[in-house]
Structure formats: C-alpha cells, structure tokens
Design goal:
Strand 43 and strand 44 form a beta hairpin. This protein has 942 residues and is of the alpha+beta class. The protein is globular, with a radius of gyration of 30 Å. Strands 21, 22, 25, 26, 27, 28, 31, 32, 33 and 34 form a ten-stranded mixed sheet that branches. The chain has a seven-stranded antiparallel sheet with strand order 10-23-20-11-17-13-14. A seven-stranded antiparallel sheet has the order 36-42-43-44-50-46-47. The protein is built from 17 helices and 50 strands. The N terminus is likely disordered. Helices cover 24% and strands 29% of the residues.
C-alpha cells in the first residue's frame, strides 16, 4: 500500500511538473527576414515582404494571428510610438512573405521592424528582437555622381594594369551616418582611409550589363575620421571587358572601365555632405599588372603605393580622370547574396611529380584562390598554376582548361614576410603547381580561400553508406563552386557561363542545399532581360553567345525552359508568389515561342537543340553522333513544350489569371494528345525507347494513366539491359530515379543510386571525385581522360540526383507551396540501414531520420517546425504496433489522426519532434537488407 501511494505521488508530481513546464514554455519569434535577406541595406523593393519563424518546445503550435510594427528608429519601435506602420492584430497563419502594408517607403531610409504572434494554445509571444531594412536610392535622378574613367588610352585587346582611382575630402563635425553607393563598369574594390570597404567580392556582380547593372550600398560610418579622409578604388576587367567564352573574346560589353561612386554623409546637426565621382579624382596604375577571370593575375609588389587610400598620400604625379557618358537608368539594387570568402582549407600534401613540378594538394576540388606566404629577395617571381586533377602518371594536368591559364604570378618586393591574394580572378582547382618559391615550400605557405555566393546552407544528408555521403558532399561542393553570382556550368576552363540548362535541372537540388531564392531572383531578372523579342531564351544568361549555333542563339529545349521551371520551383519550395508575378511575362513569352515553332500539329521539330546532352552513345555510333543524340530532339522538344505549358497554366492560376490558366491548360492537353499520337503506341511503347524518353514521358505526365506502370516497367527493363546502369544525359538524369520510384520500380532506382561501376554516380566517387563531373566518364576506368575540349571535373548537372535523395530516400517533401503543409514519406531500400536528413525551410527545421535497428524494430524520427503541419507516412507499418515515444501513436500529443493506408500507416501531426517505433513488414525488411545487384560496367564513350 505504501509503495502504491509513493508511486501515485511520484506520478502526480511528475505530471504536475510536466504541466507546469508546458505552461511555462515560451512562444518566441526569431529569424526575421526582409525578402530573402537578413537586415539588408540598400534595397529597392517598394513593398518588401517580411518573414519570421516561431520557436516553441511545445508540440502542435500554429500561429493564429500576428502584429507587425515598423518605425524609423529603434527608440520609436521600442516605445511603440511614432510608428510608420502598425498592422494591428491580423488573424492569419501567414509568417512567410507578409507584405509591408504601410505608407510609401522613402529613399535612403532605414526601417526597423518587429513582430509578435498568437498561437492556437491561447499564448502570445513577446515582441521579437528588432530587425531592419534600408532603402536604396530608388531612382536615377538621385545619383549626383558622374561616371568617371582614367585619362589615358589602352590597348584593350590585351589585359591591362588595373587602374587605381582616389580622391580626398574633409569631414567637418560628428557623423551620424554615412553611406557609400557605388558601382563600376568592370569590377571594383573600394577602400576608405586605408581599410577595405565591406567584404563583398566581384562587385558589382555579373548581370545583363546593357539592361541591368547592380550598385552596392555600404555603411561606412565607422570608417570615417575627423578632418582629411581618402577614398580609393581599384578597377578590374572582370566580365565586362575581360576574356569571355571559348573564343576568348574581350570587350564584350565595353572597352573602358569606369567608376560611379556617391558617398553621403549625414552629421549629427542635420547637415549633409555628398562626395561623388567627378573630375576632381586622380588615377594611376600600380602593382596589379593584369587580372583576368580566365587567365589569372600578375602582381608586382615592388609597385605597391603604400598609403594610397589614406589621407596625406602624395598623388602629385598621378593623372587626371574624365567623365564618361553612360546611362544610370539601368542601375538596380542587389536582391541576392554577394560573393564572399566563405572558408579556408589547408593543404593535405605537397607532391613532387614525375615531370618535376612541385604541387600542393588541397584535398578538395574548390573555387577561389590560394593565399601565399613567402619571404625572399626583391624581384623573385613565384608562379601559381591551378588544376583540378593529376594524370594517371601523377603529373599536373591542364589540357581541359583549354585557353584559360588559371595562373597567378607574385613578384616579391623583398621586405620580410609577404602575403599575396589575387583580386579580380578566381580558379577552379584542387592542385597548385608552385614554381620559383624561394626556399623550401611548406604547407604553412599555402591556404585555400573558398569563395562563392554567400547563400545560407539549408540541407544535410547522411546515411549508412560512406560513398553516398561523399556523393552528397560532392553535390554541395559542386554547387558552391558554380554558384558564383550566376549559376555557372564550370569554374575552371574558358567558359564559366550561366548555362540555362544546367541551372534548370539542378534548381530543386540547389534549393535543398542552400537558401538560393534571392540568388535565382536576381538571375531570372537577367533571363527576362536577355530574352529575345520573340520569346527565345538564350543558352547562357547573361547572354554572351549572340551567334552560337548559327542562327539559333537561343530557344533550346530543356535549356530555355529554365525561364518557366525555376520560377515554378521557387514557388513550390519557398511559397514565393511574387516571383511568378514578376516572371510571368517571360514565362508566357517562352511558351508562346514554342507554340509558334511547333505549328498547328503541336510537334516541335524545328530549331537547334542540345538534346539529352552527354547521354550514352553506343560505341559503334560514336563517329556519327553528337553528344545528345540518343533521344530524338523532336521528342524532347515536344515533351518540354507540354511540361512548360502545364507549369505556365498552374502559375497563371496562382496569380489570378484565370482565363489564361484555362487557355494554357487546354493547350497542354492538346500537346499531350499530339505527343501520344506521335510518340506512344497503344501498348505503351515510347518512341526511341531510351531511358530518357520513358523518364520524361512519365515525369511530365504525358502518358495516359493506364500506361504509366507499363512505361515504368519498360524503363526498368532498359536499365537491366544495360547491366543495371543508367544511359541518361543532362535532361533525363534529374528525373530518372523519380520515374522509377513513381512507377513501382524502387529497387531499380536504388540499384542505380548505389551502382559503383561505370557509368554511375558512385563510379565518380570511387575514382576520387570531390565534386561532380561534367561527363560520366570524365576519368575513364583506365584512368585516362575524356576529350580535353569538354571535360570539366566540377559541373553540377548530374548532382541533380540529390533531389531524389532528399525527397524519396529521406522522404522530405512539401504538400503545399513553401512547406507550410509538408510530407515526410521515406521509401527505404537499397541496402541502406539508416538515413538522416535535415532541411531548413523558411518556417524552420524539417528533419527525417530512419533506421532499421533490427528486423523487429524500425524507427522514424521527424521534426516539424512550428506553424506547419505534416503528413507522415510510416512505411511497412501496422497501426496496432506503432508507438510514438512510449505510447500508442493515436494517443500521442500533437497527433491529429493516424490510420492504415495499404501497407503503410499515415499519421497527421502538428509541429514538434516525434519518434515512431514499430515492427516493420517483411517486405520493408527485405528492401532494406537486400543489396543492389551490380552489373558489369558498360562501354560508353564519345
């Protein structure tokens, strides 16, 4: 009796403590964003959208109302008085992309904002910590500065020394705030009083320069000093007039570098002072003898001008500048993340090659440069050459760079330890050949500086298979290396262009691994700007290939469709309705272009197309094949015509264009009907019978429902016919595993994912890849290389498999746009014992981790962020055996509903972390424990 009473007391006290803990659990608001940015300075969005996240340890938390306050000072916001806008209590669960609803925003003004929320448990949060955004100049007439350029002539057919421009000015009084608004023709690096302004690289960024040119805004209040001040700017060729494309053309946008700068100072007493780029500046050249994105940099430290960005420097021998006529109405504020130094890596080895080179191995194919530390006599030349791989003999290999030199030279001034980093170039490399280094080269002399657009990492994926874990890292490193202001194809050879096809196929995977909404918003603006009047989308954006492929500079299927696919994907992933509104004219123009090209029969068989680029070509057909020859171009073009038309119809519906939505749905159905007449037999055989043909027919919903399973069976048969290998190229690969798993061929999909022989994803890993390759056989099984004219070892397109790894293997997906209603539905198999994945949505962290502990125990743990709900599918479960924590799933807190659905159990839950445990079905155990069948490698070449 006494024991029973003690237990009752303990249970009561425990329950009371738990109840007290729940009642005291705080509801908080955090992670405030304006658009996709945190505390942005110098934006031009007239009605910025505000987002936040809820935080709570309690389950099943949903926002039922919010209140936003906006003020022009922290003090006013803290008092809740003199507000610019107070939304009042708004009954809504919206916490992502809530549009500012106050009076028109004023140029240059900083706005502070905060938010509080109410939840479905009757709780209210405290006010969030304040965040802010600051407006830019908003109109061309706000620019008092003049475009200026150095006053000497150049031979711009060759790289020239980097111009250095400076001027001095006085600060008279206590400074309240100071902003530098600045841009350039070419690249710029600004310094104020001897300190670098900001940490952004490759500014002003690469855009369609004739239509859109970004300017940056910097808070330089802390860099000013009383009395004399000095502002200095270095200019570089960059994309504006440096070498571009494999034809190594120069001066693509212009042959003259120029500066536009406006420093605005506001004093405590209310006075303002504006220092602009004007004829009073002076200019010269200095230590940067040349700096080119493809070729590298030559830096002569003996020519440094010590103190040139500080007041008191003697510039009497500098030359003048002159005004340059150039438009200002093309200036725009950035909306995406800038390029920055992101991380540093140390060498793993110093090698001495059979050919006699001293080579530093960074251990990772990376993008950026190396920091060199060196001591030696003045005039010593240290040369740094960069390459991705060593050849089969262990020698430094640069043939695949084509005409890009990727070479930096540093000339010592001979004054103690010297440190060098290049300024206006970047390299794609793992290995650095160092020559001319005085003394013994040690690992401490070299540091790798990794750069890329500073998107926030959002995804992690790990499993019981170390090879797949390396594949995931390769996907991420490929993305980091190629998301450098524009989504490039490769970062090393004489190309590095914004290929639309690569971006289109990789976009969904990119959005798992990083917050790239702003990155793509910026780039899609250039897609629209460079689109032809007829609606054709260029092969690369910004477009620097005006005459590629003869008379077809754009309009290639699967490439140009980026104009439709990426905005729609952004809407799905981020719930970004505005991107559909902004890009809709571009999306529509592309679909209308395809409609005109296809003609009345709706079969598009005209124009230039890359096809299923770099797909399998049988050995006997190599001589007469082009790299995308395995699937007919008319088939691919018509399939994408249908796909983009369907997406356009859906986008029109979302943004309220009901009549156009109806029109394009009807057009899609007509294309689908024409496609089936032309390419599909009544028994479900698809024309050409390639893996890509079946994949796109399935994934683009082009087949009658009763033929989908048959198409999946035929697709799986083709995989088996190729010894359990894929044969797809750029267009087929992203959808291949989805097509298999969506038609009941999950085992075959896992076999392809875990295949380790050539060609496969893990073949690359087994061959030592640390990024994704351009070709399945960039390095052949005999360790020789593919054709050096097109053989990149850092090319992210085939990394699009990451989407399947997140959405199917880990099971993280969205049911409604933006992940407010999400789905966790892992499909285990392929011999994997466990998988853990996390994705940071705009609502917060989503997680899915599953493990087969033993044949009697399967565990799925999920995390659902506050203000969202989820449908969780438990594979191979019986409702009676499922527990959440230590209790039956039906009675667990946060569970709204649980029911049997065929072989699975479906659980509908609110926010929180849940641990589901149950005895798995024999079929699920079989799928997990069965190792994939691995066939012999196939011969695949070009």
């Amino acid at each position: 009796m006494r024991i029973w009473l003690c237990l009752m007391v303990l249970l009561f006290l425990g329950g009371a403590k738990e109840g007290a803990a729940q009642s005291n659990q705080a509801l908080q608001v955090a992670s405030l964003r304006t658009e996709y940015l945190v505390n942005p300075i110098g934006i031009e969005v007239r009605q910025p959208r505000l987002s936040w996240q809820l935080q709570s340890d309690r389950r099943d938390v949903r926002q039922v109302a919010y209140q936003i306050q906006v003020a022009t000072s922290r003090e006013a916001l803290a008092r809740g008085r003199d507000l610019v806008w107070d939304s009042g209590r708004v009954e809504s669960d919206q916490s992502v992309f809530v549009p500012y609803g106050g009076p028109a925003l004023q140029r240059r003004q900083r706005y502070y904002w905060r938010v509080r929320v109410w939840d479905n448990h009757g709780r209210s949060s405290a006010w969030s910590e304040p965040a802010f955004w600051e407006m830019g100049l908003l109109s061309p007439d706000e620019w008092r500065a003049q475009w200026i350029t150095y006053n000497w002539e150049e031979d711009t057919s060759q790289p020239q020394p980097a111009p250095m421009l400076r001027r001095t000015f006085r600060v008279e009084g206590r400074v309240r705030r100071a902003r530098l608004y600045i841009t350039s023709l070419g690249l710029y690096e600004a310094h104020l009083n001897g300190r670098r302004v900001g940490d952004q690289l490759f500014t002003p960024g690469w855009t369609s320069y004739h239509h859109r040119l970004q300017y940056q805004t910097y808070d330089v209040t802390d860099l000013l000093r009383p009395g004399e001040n000095a502002l200095g700017v270095i200019l570089g060729d960059g994309w504006y007039r440096g070498y571009l494309t494999w034809s190594v053309r120069r001066n693509v946008y212009g042959d003259r570098l120029a500066l536009l700068a406006q420093l605005e100072i506001t004093y405590e007493d209310g006075r303002t002072q504006v220092v602009t780029s004007d004829p009073d500046w002076k200019a010269t050249t200095g230590p940067i003898r040349m700096s080119d994105i493809y070729m590298g940099e030559i830096y002569d430290a003996r020519l440094e001008k010590e103190g040139w960005t500080e007041p008191g420097y003697d510039d009497s021998d500098w030359r003048g500048v002159r005004v340059l006529e150039h438009p200002k109405d093309i200036l725009i504020a950035p909306i995406g993340p800038p390029v920055r130094r992101i991380q540093e890596i140390r060498p793993v080895a110093i090698l001495y090659t059979p050919a006699g080179d001293t080579v530093v191995d960074m251990g990772q194919n990376m993008v950026g440069w190396v920091r060199l530390r060196v001591r030696g006599p003045a005039g010593t030349v240290v040369t740094l050459r960069h390459a991705e791989v060593l050849d089969k003999h262990g020698n430094f290999y640069t043939e695949n760079l084509r005409r890009a030199r990727q070479t930096d030279q540093y000339i010592l001034k001979g004054e103690g330890e010297e440190v060098f980093e290049p300024h206006f170039t970047f390299h794609g490399f793992r290995y650095v050949a160092v020559s001319g280094y005085p003394g013994e080269l040690t690992p401490e002399a070299i540091t790798g500086i990794v750069i890329h657009s500073a998107f926030e990492p959002t995804g992690t994926w790990v499993s019981s298979d170390s090879l797949l874990n390396r594949l995931q890292l390769n996907i991420q490193w490929g993305m980091k290396g190629n998301f450098l202001d524009v989504p490039t194809d490769c970062p090393q050879r004489d190309e590095r262009l914004g290929w639309t096809g690569d971006a289109q196929v990789f976009a969904r995977t990119a959005m798992f691994n990083g917050l790239v909404g702003g990155f793509f918003t910026k780039w899609l603006g250039d897609v629209a700007a460079d689109q032809s009047p007829e609606g054709a989308v260029p092969h690369v954006v910004p477009n620097v290939l005006p005459s590629f492929a003869g008379r077809f500079p754009g309009g290639a299927t699967g490439w140009a469709d980026a104009a439709v696919v990426i905005p729609w994907t952004m809407y799905q992933v981020y719930g970004d309705r505005r991107i559909l509104e902004v890009q809709y004219p571009s999306m529509k123009a592309w679909v209308e272009y395809m409609r005109r090209e296809a003609g009345d029969d709706l079969i598009w068989d005209t124009g230039f197309h890359f096809g299923d680029w770099l797909a399998f070509v049988p050995e006997e057909n190599v001589r007469r094949a082009y790299p995308g020859a395995t699937t007919g171009r008319d088939f691919l073009a018509t399939a994408y015509f249908a796909y983009s038309t369907r997406l356009l119809a859906q986008a029109a519906e979302v943004i309220g264009k009901t009549d156009e939505a109806r029109h394009y749905r009807q057009l899609y159905e007509a294309i689908r009907e024409a496609f089936n007449r032309e390419f599909v037999t009544p028994n479900g055989r698809v024309a050409q019978a390639t893996q890509t043909a079946y994949t796109l027919a399935i994934q683009f919903d082009l087949l009658p429902e009763h033929l989908r399973a048959e198409a999946g069976r035929r697709l799986a048969e083709d995989v088996r016919a190729h010894n359990m290998h894929l044969t797809t190229g750029f267009l087929g690969t992203p959808q291949l595993l989805h097509a298999l798993s969506n038609t009941g061929q999950l085992d075959v999909a896992y076999t392809l994912l875990r295949q380790t022989t050539y060609p496969s994803w893990l073949y690359q890993v087994k061959m030592g890849a640390t990024t994704m390759w351009e070709r399945w056989d960039s390095i052949k099984p005999d360790s020789t290389f593919q054709d050096p004219s097109m053989n990149s070892f850092n090319h992210y397109a085939y990394g699009s498999v990451g989407d399947w790894m997140y959405r199917v293997v880990a099971g993280i997906d969205t049911e409604t746009p933006g992940y407010q209603r999400l789905r966790i539905a892992p499909q285990p198999g392929g011999g994997l014992k466990w998988v853990q994945a996390r994705y940071h949505s705009l609502y917060g962290e989503v997680a899915s981790s599953w493990e087969l502990v033993d044949p009697q125990t399967f565990v799925l743990e999920v995390t659902i962020p506050p203000n969202t709900t989820a449908t969780v599918r438990l594979p191979g479960a019986q409702l009676a055996s499922v527990q959440e924590g230590r209790q039956p799933v039906q009675s667990a807190a946060g569970v709204h509903r649980a029911y049997q659905d065929g072989a699975d159990v479906v659980v509908e839950v609110g926010s929180g972390t849940y641990r589901f445990t149950y005895s798995p079905s024999a079929e699920l155990v079989r799928r997990i424990q069965t190792q994939p069948e691995v066939g012999q490698p196939v011969t695949m070449s070009f």
